[in-house]
């Protein structure tokens, strides 16, 4: 068989199963005279070297060789459980506390399933388990079970929005598997992709008017975060995305022509954004940079304004409005 080799225990040399001179009486012999067919050490050869096959069966080894040749030498054996890869993935990409709960259920369900056996049907069954309280109970740890029982959440059925978060996390894991040649493609069909991309929320996008904007700006002046006022002022005046305002750099601001220029590599559409702004906003930015001695680099040290923003909303007496909604407000 092409690509399949037997290794001698004595001289440690490899002998190809295709080598005719090594065949005698239906057996394969090493140059040192050792019968390799009796004590098989089956290997397959790739460009990067020799790899020990999972099975001593030549047919199984040949199938493993073809898979490794097509997808890379990191192809997962059918014997390897998905749990081992999940541990590797989560060890590298540590989930947040909010995501940890979802990953616990994902790991419990998928850990003993071979990666090669995971299909869209398996993933849909996982979604059905989440939707069925009686089946979902088996996925909880004893501590988590008692906690949910205490607060009466055992029979709570997840919404489509909640399921989307599970599918998004699963798709990230499978994408990591494909990037590392563990699998050929992500096992999502059209229905699962549609569920994972559905970003509908349970609340309608909100906007605020001019009077409410002024109240919010006034409340932000009392915030412990002294950067919040300018952050909100730029957000309301320019309509830029939260990430563009948070990551704004002094070099993006043309103080002479009253223009903010966001380079294409920092925009969602990968196109440069040029926004004319008022002299009032330019003066506020100049005063802020002067007080904080900022001559270049990032305009704000704060990377996440959500906490201080939520406090300002309460102080202004406004309902919950996402920071993202400010770009659609006056």
Task: Give a verbal description of the structure.
- The chain contains 13 helices and 9 strands.
- The protein has 330 residues and is of the alpha+beta class.
- The protein has 3 domains: 4-71, no CATH class; 82-197, no CATH class; 210-328, Intergrase catalytic core (hpI Integrase, Chain A).
- A 4-stranded antiparallel sheet has the order 2-1-5-6, with helices on one face.
- It starts with a strand and ends in a 14-residue tail after the last helix.
SSE order and pairing:
Blueprint: E1 4-7, E2 14-16, E3 23-24, E4 27-28, E5 42-46, E6 49-52, H1 58-71, H2 82-92, H3 97-110, H4 120-131, H5 133-136, H6 142-150, H7 160-179, H8 190-197, H9 210-220, H10 228-238, H11 242-246, E7 253-254, E8 259-262, E9 273-276, H12 279-291, H13 306-316
Antiparallel strand pairs: 1-2, 1-5, 3-4, 5-6, 7-8, 8-9
Which key phrases capture this entry?
3-stranded antiparallel β-sheet; Integrase_catalytic; DNA integration; 13 helices; 330 residues; elongated; 3 domains; 4-stranded antiparallel β-sheet; 43% helix; alpha+beta; hpI Integrase, Chain A; DNA-binding
CATH superfamily of the largest domain: Intergrase catalytic core
The count of DSSP E runs of length 2 or more, i.e. the number of strands, is: 9
Using the alpha-carbon principal axes, give the shape. elongated
Helix fraction bin: 40-55%
> Mean pLDDT, as a whole number?
84
The number of helices is 13
Strand order of the largest sheet: 2-1-5-6
Give the total of domains. 3
Summarize the helix and strand pattern as letters.
EEEEEEHHHHHHHHHHHEEEHH
The first-to-last residue Cα distance is 72 Å
CATH class of the largest domain reads Mainly Alpha
Q: Which residues form runs of ≥5 with pLDDT under 50?
A: none
CATH topological fold name of the largest domain: hpI Integrase, Chain A
- CATH arch. level architecture of the largest domain: Orthogonal Bundle
């Amino acid at each position: 068989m092409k690509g399949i080799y037997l290794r001698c225990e004595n001289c440690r040399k490899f002998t190809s199963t295709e080598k005719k001179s090594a065949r005698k009486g239906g057996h394969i012999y090493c140059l040192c005279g050792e019968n390799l067919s009796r004590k098989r050490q089956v290997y397959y050869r790739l460009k990067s070297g020799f790899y020990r096959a999972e099975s001593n069966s030549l047919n199984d080894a040949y199938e493993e060789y073809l898979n490794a040749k097509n997808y890379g030498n990191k192809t997962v054996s059918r014997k390897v459980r998905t749990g081992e890869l999940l541990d590797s993935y989560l060890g590298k990409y540590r989930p947040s506390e909010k995501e940890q709960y979802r990953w616990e259920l994902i790991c419990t369900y998928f850990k003993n399933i071979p990666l090669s056996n995971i299909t869209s049907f398996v993933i849909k069954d996982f979604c059905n388990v989440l939707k069925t309280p009686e089946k979902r109970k088996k996925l909880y740890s004893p501590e988590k079970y008692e906690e949910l029982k205490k607060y009466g959440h055992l029979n709570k059925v997840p919404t489509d929005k909640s399921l989307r978060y599970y599918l998004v996390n699963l798709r990230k894991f499978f994408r990591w598997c494909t990037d590392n040649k563990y699998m050929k493609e992500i096992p999502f069909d059209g229905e699962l992709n549609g569920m994972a991309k559905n970003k509908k929320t349970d609340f309608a996008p909100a906007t605020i008017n001019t009077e409410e904007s002024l109240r919010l700006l006034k409340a932000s002046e009392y915030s412990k975060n002294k950067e919040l006022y300018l952050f909100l002022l730029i957000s309301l005046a320019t309509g830029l995305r939260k990430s563009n305002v948070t990551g704004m750099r002094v070099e993006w601001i043309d103080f002479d022509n009253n223009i903010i220029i966001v380079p294409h590599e920092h925009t969602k559409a990968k196109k440069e954004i040029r926004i004319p702004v008022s002299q009032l906003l330019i003066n506020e930015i100049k005063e802020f940079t002067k007080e904080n001695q900022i001559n270049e680099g990032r305009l704000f040290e704060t990377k996440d304004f959500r906490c201080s923003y939520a406090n300002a909303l309460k102080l202004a007496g406004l309902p919950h409005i996402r920071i993202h909604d400010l770009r659609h407000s006056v």
